[in-house]
Amino acid sequence: MPPWEIPSDQLPPVAAVQKLLRALADPVRLEMVRRLAADPAGEAPCSDLYEGLNKSTATHHFKILVEAGAFRPVMVGPSRGHRLRRDALQEAAPGLLDALMGALDREN
Amino acid sequence: MPPWEIPSDQLPPVAAVQKLLRALADPVRLEMVRRLAADPAGEAPCSDLYEGLNKSTATHHFKILVEAGAFRPVMVGPSRGHRLRRDALQEAAPGLLDALMGALDREN
DNA sequence: CTCGAAGTACGACGCACATCATACTTCTCT
DNA sequence: AGAGAAGTATGATGTGCGTCGTACTTCGAG
């Protein structure tokens, strides 16, 4: 969907809370977010963010996360990948990401 | 579903993050939570928490919120109602509820 | 005791969406 | 230039779930 490498000034805004929640409420996508959030660089190639899934299914989930404003498509090394939009998320819903990741950790 | 007035010591535990998110990711249920969170007493009769919905649909949503551990069924005055389980939610996912409600407010 | 109001239970229906297979694009590397 | 890896697009499929209508329960008020 993205013409690849969306310019910073025309990234989709982080979606309304309800839509954002929908994006995060899927187990596959929540795991994708968790992995990116755990990554020190905050970015990773697509294939590092899932397992045991058809590639096209993964693309589908990425699309939803990008449209929700949580991910930003980006080149990472030679491959396509995604970066977690920590700043934008923090501005739209302060503390939400931290609370979620904290809860996921504790859950282990 | 509840034998009415569940004893405190056998309330369902707050669900795993992913299930909790699913419960909150529906617009109707999110609004229910918002209203209860906005209520100073933190509780309200069922009918105060929705509008323009079939009663049985509302019951369905309440059930999901109770099973997710977000609501506790309780008598409020002469009617049945629900109380927001702030404490339990805070323990399971510290800061999550606050972050959500804050984001909803800012969304005005 | 009956009536009505407030919820719940149950069944049916329709749509959204998670999934997959296949085909296509677009890189990089040799 | 050709091969292969990595993602994307598209179409098909099945199911989960949000919705409703109707019938049932329960409770308070008259």
If you had to describe this structure to a student in words, what would you say it looks like?
The structure is a homodimer of 108-residue chains. By secondary structure, chain A is an alpha+beta fold. Chain A has a single domain (13-107), classed as Winged helix-like DNA-binding domain superfamily/Winged helix DNA-binding domain (Arc Repressor Mutant, subunit A, Orthogonal Bundle), CATH 1.10.10. Chain A is 48% helix and 14% strand. The first copy, chain A, has five helices and three strands, in the order H-H-E-H-E-E-H-H. A three-stranded antiparallel β-sheet of chain A has the order 1-3-2. Chain A is globular and about 35 Å long. The mean pLDDT of chain A is 93. Chain A binds chain B through residues 16-18, 21-22, 24-25, 27, 30, 92-96, 98-100, 102-104, 107, and chain B through 16-18, 21-22, 24-25, 27, 30, 92-96, 98-100, 102-104, 107. The structure holds a DNA duplex (30 and 30 nucleotides).
